[in-house]
Amino acid sequence: MSDAGGHAGSCTYRRRRRRGLATSALLAKHGVRSLLVEKRREIFIYPKARNLSFRSLEILRRLGLGDEMHAVAEHVSDLVVKPMLNSAEEEPAWTSTPFSPLRRTEPEPSAQYLPQSRLEPMLVRETRQHGNEVRYGTELPSFEQDDEGVAAVVRERDSGATETIRADYLVAADGVHSPVRDSLAITTSGYGAVPIFVVFIYFKAPWRKFVPQLGDGDGVQVKNADADGIFLVVEGDFGIFITTYFPTKVKLPSSSLGSGARRYSPRQSASRSTWRSSTSPRGSRTSA
Fold first, then answer.
1. Domain that residue 180 falls in
2. Helix 116-129 / helix 18-29 crossing angle, nearest 10 deg
3. Which pLDDT tens digit goes with each residue over 244-266?
4. Is residue 153 domain-shared with residue 242, that is, in the same domain?
5. Distance CA 208, CA 237 (A)
6. Where is the composition biased (Low complexity) (predicted)?
7. What is the CB neighbour count within 10 angstroms for residue 44?
């Protein structure tokens, strides 16, 4: 199927994070054509979604990524608690993990540190090697579905050029705040939006000297009367500080919420996100 100025595909994706890429790679392995569109202009450089469980590791192994995955994956992220970052006093944040009893029975480790910044390039390459397309810097402004499938309009962010793509299905792998799901009036259930914001501050500074024993992906929870948050080791001097705040009690200055942290800028920058629970939506030609 195709339209003027467009082309055909079995599935079109609007993705967020690695779920869409994993789905695309799995379908590609089984010969299902797809186009994945990603609003970001480049592969993710920050280590979000840091640890993979044994089930995720099994799926990646079935994709043929087992050896490559284990070559870059590390132990499950560790976390210690300290009153101050430069304090000599520290204690482990936990003594065991939920998957610890499985270590003797599973062929894969119970969990490994393999963040999105390391996994995404693998999945992109795997998808493209099977002939499927991944487009960065591309948006999905609108779509329509009918008895024959879905007509999706995609737009390049830089040029503004648009095209219409006919596909059998549209997979909305764009998170809990999915505009695709909202446009279809597919609701979620649960508590709803939690009134707490999680702030991520990306920075570059010579701070690793205070925690030389920690490896990439490990963290330090600093907990005292003035601060309560977690420093995460990323790579070299690049780090992340994560903390929470209640918007009804504290208002962050807008200048601290820019996007200046790209490419490991030494300038501090933060982004905010609200956690919200959801359930799987009902069946449709558009799957969220």
1. 8-77+97-186+281-287
2. 30
3. 877 666 655 444 333 333 333 33
4. no
5. 6
6. 267-288
7. 18
